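Example (one chain per record):
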Amino acid sequence: MRCRGGTLIALAADEIIMCEHAVLGPVDTQLGEYPAGSILKAAHQKSIAEVDDKTLILADQAEKAVAQMRKEVGELLAAKDPGERSAEIAKLLTSGTWTHDYPITYERARELGLPVRTNMPENMLRLMQLYPQPIRRQPSVEYVPVPYRSGERGR
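Predicted structure:
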């Protein structure tokens, strides 16, 4: 089971400080390569006789994973703002409302009622500059050190 750890850490904080380019993500659980919410949806769209055993087992695990995550997120949010709103936000963040890569911007987080601010301390931005993210580079040409075709010699 996978989910977004960074968003969970942010939800545990008293407040979330985001710069203008920062985003959070949904905390929808993933089982292997599949979103738990999508597994549940697929399993419920057919009669049980039409669903194979593997999908039923995945749906059982997905249901447990979603319930666990919703409970944890709900408790994190309720610690700061008890009430029904916390449960609603927890359901929205954990149920597969959005795809796993959906960016929750500052504006969207504020609309949801999350405790966000944008006044990122200058010292924090300087600290982050000390740890640049690696740039992904994929080779466009691959060197193969042996002849490509049988009987052909390297040139």
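Caption: The radius of gyration is 22 Å.
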